[in-house]
Amino acid sequence: MNQTPKTKAGKPKQKQKGFISGSSAPEQKISMRVVEESGKPIQSTFNRTKTSPFGLFNHDAAERLQRSGPNEVAHDKAPHALVQLALSFKNPFVIVLLILATISYILDVHLAVPDERSWKGVIILVTMVTISSLLRFFQEYRSNKAAERLKSMVRTTATVLRRTNDAANPQRQEIPMRELVVGDIVSLQAGDMIPADIRLFASRDLFISQAVLTGEALPVEKYDTLGAVAQKSADANPALDSKADLLDLSDICFMGTNVVSGTATAVVVATGANTYFGSLAENVVSHKRIETSFDRGVSSVSWLLIRFMLVMVPIVFMINGVTKGDWMSALTFALAVAVGLTPEMLPMIVSANLAKGAMAMARRKVVVKRLNSVQNFGAMDVLCTDKTGTLTQDKIILERHLDISGNKDESILQLAWLNSFHQSGQKNLMDIAIVSHADERGPAAKLLQYSKIDEMPFDFVRRRLSVIVEDQAGAQLMVSKGAVEEMLAVCSHAQEGSEVRPLDAKARTALLEQAREYNEEGYRVLIVATRQIDAAHAKVQYKTEDEANLVVRGFLTFFDPPKDSAAPAIRALQEYGVAVKVLTGDNAIVTLKVCRDVGLDPGTPLVGQEIEAMSEQQLNEAVKYTTVFAKLTPLQKSRVVKALQANGHTVGFLGDGINDAPALRDADVGISVDSGADIAKETADIILLEKSLMVLEEGVVKGRETFGNILKYLNMTASSNFGNVFSVLVASAWLPWEPMLAVHLLIQNLIYDISQMMLPWDKMDEDFLKKPRKWDAGNIRRFMIWIGPTSSVFDITTYILMWTVFGAGAMYAADGGSAGQSIMNSGWFIEGLVSQTLVVHMLRTRKIPFIQSTAALPVLLSTAIAIGIGCYLPFSPLAASIGFVALDTSYFYWLIATMVGYMILAQTVKTIYIRRYGQWF
């Protein structure tokens, strides 16, 4: 195992993704505020915050909220609309176009003689920039608003005491966490996030997970009493010795941490940016955010195309300059080629696809908190999920309560009720099942004469929970329940009937075997044990070390029936190339049976103790062949996720509990449910409004469809642009003038780009959706080189056609004038635009277009309109002003023949490409 750094107390500190460390000046100021409150009489805190134990008046809280602002820390949020508009122009492709527009202005307007000045190129370039940027702004603004609306569906609330204007009695209210103010009195229970920096003034068995701040897995206990650090004089210690000291304050809880067990009432002493977490978050947000795989993918593809442009444009410039002798005209034409190579609609296409995908997923009860996670959802090839509530029904039934001989025993139910009823943590499904079963049995199942003294809450290392109760005579009893092996580790005796016997090795083995038999029948098993505490050892507060020398009393067996939808959902995910792995804290044997019941081949399970003993390299190898990971702690779940990622997988994690937060944070796409713990929902990227694997399958499909439409644009545009440049190179070396004027190239590119705006509304072939998809710049490069030149074949035949059949060559031979060039320009403009637009239908699918796969109606209409405009322009009133002439009607017969040949060649090359490389895009 790797050595981990030590805290001041000597405990190992495990760093997590999202772990916040370091110290800064803002933290020092926050530390002082906290120290000033900690350890003083609680009344002084009430006085400073101008509140009371009964809470604030509603009108006072509203005024404070108005003055101090919402209880929010610095976080990524959409900027003002004007800022978004400015940022929509911040894109490498837009910058390239603006540079080209500037050069065009200098060449065509500023340096040109008055009679030859032309604003056409500048106007077209500015139009392209404006359309691209405004569409991007519109899509991103709309998607940001949509994301905010979706996130508002998942509200994180706090329970506060508030008073109305005419009533002194406080009332409990659930308010959005952002509306909390200094002086509010908050109530806490297991599963709650700490909504602000608070000072406790009443608590019971309160255990707080501070992993988000410290990275430490084990929760720490907090009290409404003076802590050792808090007793220091603030005057003598202007700042605490270290961050660890600050977090050790026993009566202070910090925003962003969460309650593992217990209850508390506290007063809010700091909110928003004034909290400890707020100062850290502000520091984090001020740094550049780490790029996601999606961001890196877009960037790699963008710079691939820019590098290609930087290579090809100088070549076009040199060939035209040398062959034509007009270097100024060659430069203008080369700039137009650069525009043709620039996929300026890419940002808009990406934004539109992600926004459309997020809204479509919302209709399927999937809330996307971060738009880029839509693509990660589609790229996911491994889904890690818990067993309970996902593969099984979200309801556990207590089947039997047995003594150690396997006989039904009512006293075991009574003891279990004492434990589950009196524990103050978040009651899990088994606790609910015990209390519910006892309610059905009536008062006889409940030992009402006992009152609670203390508890040692459940954690994922001890895997047991103990409560200490006291009867009316003052005799104390410790009642523990928990996992079989962990309970036997603290038991020294076993009771059968009225006889208590020492628990020797043989008896332990027999109990383990008995539990295994129950597990193999599909039951989850807990052991119940007790310890009588004599008056000499009675306490008010107990520690986990007191869980010793317990007496095994019996077993509890629970039935957790599989969901009817689990089996078809797993089959569906597997059909889409998503491997399902089960990460659970439950028993391995029970998990194996449930997996088999739902059609999941479990193989050989890997348990938490085995994982703990493995190095990172060993675990990376083990996860390749393991489906079931059982008896895991929260950090072990996180280790499994990281090991899968190290093997090149895109990992999703579905979890809804406190123990799932580390894995949710570390997964490529963290998925939680609306009914989950606050910390789980806050950590996740995606929230399911319905806890169902079928909903996940629909989300995966929509994510892949979204990503597929982005890839379509990239591949089609890159290959089409490459083909055009290849054709330009041939024409520049052969023809006596440019095959098209620079303004023609700009107009052609503008029409084509506008036609691509409908691509986000296209549909994907079913076979594309069957496999996870990731960014692959190498395949885009290969696709461009293979497919691009197919259009050049027919561009060249069009040159020959216009030169010979339609007389461009004869006209040039006769007078060398521009009449032949106009015919050539008009003919290739139409053929180039039609082929470039028509190829959308050839390349959008690996199937035969129009026969096996047809584009969505918006794409059909947009391409048809683009083709119509392109064919009409040489015949329009604008033709003469932009250098076009009307062509003979017979040209269109040749055009149809050219397009048929092009489609056949494109389909042939596509088939060869797929057979050779096994993929399309």
N-to-C CA distance: 41 Å
Question: Structural class, judged by helices and strands?
Answer: alpha/beta
The residue-averaged pLDDT reads 80
Number of DSSP helices? 32
How many β strands by DSSP?
24
What is the makeup of the main sheet? Answer: 8 strands, mixed
Per the principal axes of the C-alpha atoms, what is the gross shape? elongated
Strand content: 5-15%
Describe this entry's structure for a reader.
The strands form three sheets. Strands 1, 2, 3, 4, 5, 6, 7 and 8 form an eight-stranded mixed beta sheet that branches. An eight-stranded mixed beta sheet has the order 9-24-23-22-10-19-21-20, sandwiched between helices. Strands 11, 12, 13, 14, 15, 16, 17 and 18 form an eight-stranded mixed beta sheet that branches. Helix content is 49%, strand content 15%. A hairpin with a 7-residue loop joins strand 12 and strand 13. It has 921 residues and is of the alpha/beta class. Helix 11 runs parallel beside helix 26, helix 25 packs across helix 28 and helix 30 packs antiparallel against helix 31.
Topology readout:
Blueprint: H1 25-37, H2 42-49, E1 56-57, H3 58-68, H4 81-87, H5 92-110, H6 120-152, E2 157-163, E3 171-176, E4 185-189, E5 197-209, H7 211-214, E6 220-222, H8 243-247, E7 252-253, E8 258-270, H9 276-286, H10 293-324, H11 327-340, H12 346-363, E9 366-368, H13 373-379, E10 382-385, E11 397-403, H14 410-422, H15 429-441, E12 451-456, E13 464-470, E14 476-482, H16 484-488, E15 491-496, E16 499-502, H17 505-520, E17 523-533, E18 550-559, H18 566-575, E19 579-583, H19 588-597, E20 606-607, H20 608-612, H21 616-622, E21 628-630, H22 634-646, E22 651-654, H23 661-666, E23 669-673, H24 678-683, E24 686-688, H25 693-734, H26 742-755, H27 766-769, H28 777-804, H29 808-815, H30 819-843, H31 857-872, H32 891-917
Parallel strand pairs: 1-2, 10-19, 10-22, 15-18, 19-21, 20-21, 22-23, 23-24
Antiparallel strand pairs: 2-3, 2-4, 4-8, 5-6, 5-7, 5-8, 9-24, 11-18, 12-13, 13-14, 14-17, 15-16, 17-18
Helix pairs in contact: 4-6, 5-6, 5-11, 6-12, 6-26, 10-11, 10-25, 11-26, 12-25, 13-25, 14-15, 18-25, 21-22, 25-28, 25-30, 26-30, 26-31, 28-30, 28-32, 29-30, 30-31, 30-32
